[in-house]
């Protein structure tokens, strides 16, 4: 019978890829791109779905066509959200450049508030365009403003939570 060749600390080996418990990962094993893409898509679906759902409800109410209108607004949001991710990177760099001596959690909080306002505005625009349309500009502007103002507290809460707790972990995961 062959001797047991399994390392004694297999949990550490499986989690961080190192042969000793205290050694760091040497960087040879990278996170697959598919996992990174799936993480971003999951975030887009949860955050975008929640925000466009609130905005769609404010624009059309709960009717027979609510879920169809919501799905259209969410699909439109998928086209806008990559721009938001790029803007988040730019806003983060800008804030880090302008406030280098500020603590990281304060910079992340500022980033979260700024990004919430930017993304809410963009998502309110896309949701109002899909649910109301551009035929009546007054109705469109009212729908955009109402969707923006109602979803802003939800967006601020989400963005602050994301930028303070989840964003640093996501950045580390995406860099791996």
The value of Rg in angstroms is 21 Å
- Domain count: the total is 1
Put simply, the count of helices is: 5
Which bin fits the share of residues in helices? over 70%
Question: Tell me, what's the shape?
Answer: globular
Number of separate strands: 0
Low-confidence stretches: 6-23
Termini separation: 39 Å
What does the largest sheet look like?
A: none
Mean pLDDT: 80
| H and E string | HHHHH
What proportion of the residues form beta strands (DSSP E)?
A: under 5%
Structural class category: mainly alpha
Biased composition (Polar residues): 1-12
Protein name: DUF2798 domain-containing protein
Region (Disordered): 1-26
Transmembrane segments: 33-55, 75-96, 108-128, 148-166
Describe the protein in words.
Keywords: Membrane, Transmembrane, Transmembrane helix. The protein is built from five helices and no strands. The chain has helices at residues 10-16, 33-60, 66-98, 104-131, 137-175. The protein is globular and about 50 Å long. The protein starts with 9 loop residues before the first helix and ends with a helix.
List keywords for this structure.
77% helix, mainly alpha, 176 residues, globular
SSE inventory with pairings:
Layout: H1 10-16, H2 33-60, H3 66-98, H4 104-131, H5 137-175
Helix pairs in contact: 2-3, 2-4, 2-5, 3-4, 4-5
Region (Disordered): 1-26
Keywords: Membrane, Transmembrane, Transmembrane helix
Biased composition (Polar residues): 1-12
């Amino acid at each position: 019978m062959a001797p047991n060749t399994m390392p004694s600390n297999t949990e550490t080996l499986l989690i961080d890829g190192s042969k000793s418990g205290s050694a760091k990962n040497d960087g040879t094993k990278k996170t697959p791109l598919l996992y990174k893409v799936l993480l971003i898509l999951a975030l887009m679906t949860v955050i975008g779905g929640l925000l466009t759902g609130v905005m769609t409800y404010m624009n059309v109410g709960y009717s027979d066509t609510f879920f169809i209108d919501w799905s259209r607004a969410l699909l439109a949001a998928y086209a806008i959200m990559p721009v938001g991710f790029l803007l988040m990177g730019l806003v983060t760099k800008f804030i880090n450049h302008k406030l280098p001596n500020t603590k990281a959690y304060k910079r992340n909080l500022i980033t979260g508030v700024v990004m919430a306002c930017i993304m809410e505005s963009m998502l309110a625009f896309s949701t109002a365009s899909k649910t109301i349309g551009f035929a009546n500009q007054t109705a469109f502007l009212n729908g955009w403003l109402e969707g923006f103002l109602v979803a802003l507290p939800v967006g601020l809460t989400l963005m602050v939570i994301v930028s303070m707790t989840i964003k640093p972990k996501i950045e580390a995961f995406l860099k791996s």
